[in-house]
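Title: Prediction job returns without error message
Component: structure pipeline
Severity: low
Priority: P3
Assignee: unassigned

Description:
Job completed but the reporter wants confirmation the result is attached to the right record. Sequence as submitted:
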Amino acid sequence: METAAFLKTLDYAILKPELGHDALAQAADLCRRLGVGCLCVKSVDVPLAAQLLSGSATAVAAVVGFPHGNVHPAVKALEAQLAVAEGAEEVDMVVNVAALKAGDAEAVARDVRAVVDAVRPYPVKVILETALLSEAEARLGVACAVEAGAAFVKTSTGFAPQGGATHEAAQTLLDAAQGRVRVKASGGIRTREDAEAYLAQGCARLGVGAVLPLLTADERAAFGV
């Protein structure tokens, strides 16, 4: 894949709780220089991220209900609304995993819809945390996201001890989505080969914790990084 197109598929995540303004500034600078598609940040960091990336080709995404998703839908909606007001252009929300595992489709759809309605027309990506789900539960999560008007379903937060994205989980989401929502693979993507395999599989976005290891030596030299 051509380098610029590849970089546009990346959501570079700066979400570890210990990462502060210096790390965010470095990440924003890298995104600006490379043309990374999106910088995904904690909601509290949205104002600074938006300021640092103003005028660039990189969008700012905020995580909501992160990383566990176990908050009231109204709280998620307010967090998302504040993030958009402060400069976020996308929202990555964590689903209510317990409700999803219990098969409570109404509660899951209500949870997602609260955020979708709060930030419309900005796209919402629904993090299902597939490492914690059976295949049937993951499929139900996709159905709820579609019903609630989400733009994407996403495999993982990257914070679950059970693991991040797998190609099997991504395929389950792709099969369930049938083009009705896009799929983002996230968590544990550390090589260019693996990244391009997810894209070839049909994923539209990739959540990554580092960008430079995904570039060849020649590409890094071309960007001077």
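Comment from assignee: result matches the submitted record. The beta strands are 10-14, 38-42, 59-64, 90-94, 124-127, 152-154, 182-186, 205-208.
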